[in-house]
Amino acid sequence: MSMKTIRWGMLCALMAAAMQVSHAAPGVTLVDDRGVTVRLESPPTRIITLLPSLTETVCELGGCARLVGTDRYSNHPASVRNLPKTGGLDDANIELIASLKPDVVLLALSSRVSERLESLGLKVVALEPRTYKDVQRVAGKVAQILGSADGGLRLWQRLEAQVDAAAKTVPVNARGLSVYYEVDSAPYAAGESSFIGETLTRLGAKNIVPTSLGPFPKLNPEYVVRADPQVIMISQRHSAGVGARPGWERIRAVRDKHVCAFTLEQGDVLSRPGPRMGEAAQIMANCLRASAVTMGAGAVR
Questions:
Q1: pLDDT by residue for the chain (301 residues), tens digit each?
Q2: CATH number of the domain enclosing 47
């Protein structure tokens, strides 16, 4: 056997070995929202999510069967309700999480348990969607973790189409209506720069809380009175007492009964920047459309 033949055989053997290694361990490498590079040896089969929007994104991208635990607030889709609940943003049960032996834990950037989990040898990926751009990016990252080549892009394109479709249902006379969207009775509001505010803008509404105040600012109640919104979007839980707040009886939305009170289930949809944002857009569009109808009726009278 010639030396040339031997070298060729060795080269072929090395190439075959390299291909086998590559096929056996494709691996996943990504940079999370902390700026930390995380390396997974293969797409994970045991995942814990500590943020409802991340839970919903994993499931929407076909990874629900890989979930072995979630935070206490994750309740959609229905199948995740029976999974072990590992706490919330600030009180995650570290021992329970470790006992579930996850390949990776997906959590919010604002979570305080990342370092403790990593000290136990667990892989942690911090992802926190706050804007439309964030939702698109996080969908892509989660798809990458799951080993899906283009799942994130498909999800984002579907969301964009759904929001556009919801916007088309808003009548012309509802566009430009000023809106106060309350996320908490403190009161905290959804500003223009939040994902909720971005949806309102896409629907043609005018948010009374400008970008300069931040995504979810705490407001002086008098600010809302002075802004005099035409429509108020609020949780059903806090809607009953709106008219009793000092000075709020003078607000057009309260006076004209243009207060959209969302159920607890609708609140979940509206407050989670993820796969159900198209549904959230339609809920808000329905509110604007209903307000426009009663305004039109008032004009006739």
A1: 555 554 555 545 445 544 443 444 468 999 999 999 999 999 999 999 999 999 999 999 999 999 999 999 999 999 999 999 999 888 999 999 999 999 999 999 999 999 999 999 999 999 999 999 999 999 999 999 999 989 999 999 999 999 999 999 999 999 999 999 999 999 999 999 999 999 999 999 999 999 999 999 999 999 999 999 999 999 999 998 899 999 999 999 999 999 999 999 999 999 999 999 999 999 999 999 999 887 754 332 2
A2: 3.40.50.1980
Evaluate whether residue 6 is within a structural domain.
no
pTM: 0.88
Q: Establish if 235 belongs to a structural domain.
A: yes
Q: Evaluate the CA torsion angle 202, 208, 211, 213 in order and state its sign.
A: negative
Q: How many helices (H) and strands (E) does the chain have?
A: 12, 11
User: Domain total for the chain?
Assistant: 2
With the C-alpha atoms ordered 164, 165, 168, 170, is the resulting torsion angle positive or negative? negative
For residue 118, the enclosing domain spans 26-149
